[in-house]
Design a protein that fits this description.
The protein has 248 residues and is an alpha+beta fold. The chain is built from 11 helices and 5 strands; from the N terminus they run ααααββαβαααααββα. Helix 1 packs across helix 2, helix 6 runs antiparallel to helix 7 and helix 8 crosses helix 9. The longest helix has 28 residues.
Length: 248
């Protein structure tokens, strides 16, 4: 009897159902000891029960997270998709919008850069919005300030070239390297340096950080694909599959 009760109680607890058949508070010390031993014996004989329960719990947590993300995206849609300052690449009139929060010092962002570029190349109907989200230290912030300053001073085309170069850059980020990089694109590196600590640059990065906080984004890369938050790196084929799914 106790074996059956133990199994029922375990399954009920793992599935968050009321275990009405067992009230541990009414058991004697001896009954509780027997019950615990039966639970242990059942788990040793049926370890898959634990894995099944964990799988159910994970599914429920993922579903709850997905539902919460839907609300977060909906509540912040204007700032996510049409903030008026973030760089837009791909097809500005595309039927799918992909937003990426990135950090130039993030290894997974660097890996994602090539995958996203392939998406834009093979699928001509994607609108990409780039969000500068430097979270990995002073070098990340330095790179983002320089990139945003380039965009504000020299425009989107200049930003696009510098952005791509920063995404494939190896080694430390410092002013000498950034100014040398800007010069290779024929940009006024001194003017960019003079502007990178301006209120305008600071405000753009601040707004993106505030948006990320509202969206509970703590790592990079993080993507917003239409109404869904995608946290972390995905290879090209998985991203394309998600886009195809959104298109229905």
């Amino acid at each position: 009897m106790f074996r059956t009760l133990a199994a029922s109680c375990l399954l009920a607890l793992s599935l968050s159902l009321p275990a009405q058949a067992v009230d541990l508070s009414t058991m004697t010390d001896e009954e509780r000891a027997i019950f615990r031993e039966e639970v242990r014996a059942y788990l040793m004989e049926n370890p898959q029960v634990i894995m099944d329960a964990v799988a159910v719990l994970e599914e429920r947590e993922q579903a709850a997270q997905a539902q919460a993300d839907l609300s977060l995206v909906s509540d912040n849609a204007d700032e996510i998709f049409n903030d008026g300052y973030s760089f837009v690449a791909g097809n500005p009139e595309g039927d799918i919008t992909l937003v990426e929060f990135l950090d130039y010092r993030c290894g997974f962002c660097k890996r994602a850069h090539g995958e996203v570029a392939k998406l834009l190349e093979t699928d001509g109907n994607i609108r990409l919005v780039v969000k500068e989200f430097p979270i990995l230290g002073e070098q990340s912030l330095l790179a983002s300030r320089f990139a945003v300053a380039t965009k504000q001073i020299a425009g989107d085309d200049a930003y696009a070239g510098l952005h791509d170069a920063l995404m494939v850059m190896n080694g430390d980020v410092n002013m000498r390297a950034l100014k040398r990089m800007a010069s290779t694109f024929g940009l006024d590196a001194d003017a960019i340096e003079a502007h990178m600590n301006s209120d305008e640059v600071t405000e753009e990065i601040r707004r993106t950080r505030a948006l990320a906080q509202r969206l509970s984004i703590t790592g990079t890369p993080t993507f917003v694909l239409e109404d869904e938050l995608v946290r972390g790196f995905l290879p090209y084929d998985q991203m394309q599959a998600l886009i195809d799914e959104k298109r229905g």
